[in-house]
Design brief:
Alpha-Beta Plaits; 4 helices; about 25% strand; about 15% helix; 9-stranded mixed β-sheet; alpha+beta
Length: about 200
């Protein structure tokens, strides 16, 4: 029976099982043989990583052509303007082309785990939180999108991929779920700020 694992990746953990440089990897957290990440999450980003030993499923999750939605909680430097939010939603011109239309809104600060190391705040510059949903996976895409509209990303948490989310999953922990959650009983991704805030209390 194929396996499907959800992992809440902390910051500064490589989204792979080995590293010649000796940095922390998935192997430091997940003692399960023969599973691989379906898509990557940057070293300096946090949140959901889906792993499986099913090659077909891995491709379905990771391949942008399937347009599987990914929801991110993004702490940015500055206060988003309506123009900036419209630009993110329309699609942002980047060096590798214009991004697909996204869903974005400002949300209250989510009640999630503290980051290690913590964000370095500057007293004179306010920060804001966005919920951003995209359906592609370019290299450092969310960070490049927010930077392009004048909102540098300070903290990036991937909250959900398709039907799977971090709901109730503490940082650095994982759980195995039944594959029927993928083939039939798919749940909708959490999109309301209050849902995310309440879920964060479990983390």
């Amino acid at each position: 029976m194929p396996r499907l694992i959800l992992f809440n990746k902390p910051m500064n953990v490589l989204c792979q099982f080995t590293d010649p440089a000796g940095r922390m990897t998935l192997a430091d957290f997940i003692p399960v043989p023969d599973v691989y990440a379906a898509g990557r999450l940057d070293y300096d980003s946090e949140g959901l990583v889906v792993l499986t030993d099913d090659g077909r499923l891995q491709k379905e999750i990771a391949d942008p052509k399937h347009k599987m939605p990914k929801v991110y909680l993004v702490q940015v430097e500055g206060i988003p303007t309506k123009d900036a939010l419209r630009a993110l939603a329309r699609g942002v011109p980047l060096k590798d082309g214009v991004t697909r239309p996204a869903t974005v809104r400002v949300i209250p600060e989510p009640d999630v785990w503290e980051r290690v190391p913590p964000i370095r705040f500057r007293k004179t510059i306010p920060t804001s939180w966005l919920m951003l949903t995209i359906s592609e996976g370019r290299n450092r895409q969310v960070r490049r999108m927010t930077a392009a509209v004048g909102l540098p990303t300070l903290r990036l948490i991937r909250w959900s991929i398709g039907p799977w989310s971090l709901d109730g999953l503490a940082a650095g922990t994982w759980r195995e779920i039944a594959l029927d959650s993928w083939r039939g009983r798919q749940r909708s991704c959490p999109t309301k700020p209050d849902r995310v805030k309440n879920a964060g209390k479990l983390l």
